[in-house]
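User: Sequence recovery, please. Input:
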């Protein structure tokens, strides 16, 4: 049976635990090469993670004949460029979320991969995690009756060590597409797409209340699904520590489900039978279940739940919410 040999472009923090080690822990998969523009850091990563090859040049990794597929783990501003190159090399593409800075860039990436005949996957890995699959199971099996609405709230304190002279890329629109809304709400909106199907209408209001960086720091949104389910969302990234909030509430005709996207392993179900709590721990490497399904899809042995097409839908909704 063929083994998929992976290369990583951008072996930064997200690859240390969340994703990198998982490539060599799932069946028929192996991480064989990593790249970072800082050669010393690339070499250090390779040494610490027992990766045979390291590069300081992305093209060299992409064109390495011993690399079968490439994981692009750079900021969104370079996702499209690297996707074009990997697709041109005839290799499957796995790109971090958000997929790109705009819906238009996502469409260009999809077209490039379709023309090259290679699959395109996006790291909305919660679609593969047991916790969120349990949420979908509760909703689709009627545990709360017919779903009426969704309320989503995410309030984060200001980053403590925010350096005004060297802002994190996540709050620089030229690199991230927007601010923390694009980085974090993308996971939440994609999760709703996974549970309910595509959002068909969305609008929002955005602001910059604290003036700490050029991107938006507060967003309010309303949205609707094709089924008629309505939703709201409120995101703020400059609140006090004491009001930090991470909650999604799904309300139905016979109850409700509440869960967190980032900070809890507990799902709460309330219906006529009372209140139930389901505790489902996250995997050590949160991307591992997704990577396993992606490898199976590449090998023709299964399907992957997050593709360029599904991820582009989330990008389109975020663009609509911020008014572009």
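Assistant: Recovered sequence (324 residues):
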């Amino acid at each position: 049976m063929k083994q998929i040999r992976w290369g990583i472009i951008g072996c930064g923090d997200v690859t240390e635990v969340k994703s990198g080690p998982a490539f060599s822990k799932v069946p028929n998969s192996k991480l064989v090469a990593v790249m970072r523009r800082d050669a010393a850091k690339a070499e250090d990563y390779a040494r610490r993670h027992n990766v045979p090859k390291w590069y300081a040049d992305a093209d060299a990794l992409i064109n390495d004949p011993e690399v079968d597929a490439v994981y692009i783990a750079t900021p969104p501003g370079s996702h499209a460029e690297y996707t074009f190159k990997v697709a041109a090399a005839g290799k499957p593409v796995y790109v971090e979320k958000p997929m790109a800075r705009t819906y238009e860039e996502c469409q260009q990436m999809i077209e490039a991969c379709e023309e090259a005949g290679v699959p395109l996957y996006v790291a909305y890995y919660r679609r593969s995690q047991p916790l969120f699959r349990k949420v979908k199971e509760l909703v689709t099996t009627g545990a709360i009756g017919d779903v009426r609405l969704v309320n989503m709230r995410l309030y984060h304190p200001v980053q403590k060590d925010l350096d005004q002279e060297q802002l994190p890329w996540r709050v620089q629109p030229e690199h991230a597409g927007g601010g923390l809304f694009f980085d974090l709400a993308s996971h939440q909106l994609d999760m709703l797409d996974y549970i309910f199907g595509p959002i068909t209408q969305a609008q929002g209001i955005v602001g910059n209340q604290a003036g700490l960086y050029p991107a938006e720091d507060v967003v309010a949104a309303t949205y609707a699904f094709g089924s008629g389910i309505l939703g709201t969302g409120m995101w703020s990234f400059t609140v006090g520590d004491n009001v930090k909030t991470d909650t999604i509430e799904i309300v139905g005709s016979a109850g409700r489900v509440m869960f967190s996207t980032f900070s809890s392993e507990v799902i709460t179900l309330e219906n006529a039978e009372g209140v139930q709590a389901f505790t489902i721990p996250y995997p050590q490497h949160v991307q591992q279940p997704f990577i396993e399904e992606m490898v199976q899809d590449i090998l023709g042995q299964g399907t992957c739940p997050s593709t360029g097409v599904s991820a582009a839908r989330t990008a389109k909704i975020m663009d609509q919410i911020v008014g572009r």
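The chain has a mean pLDDT of 97.
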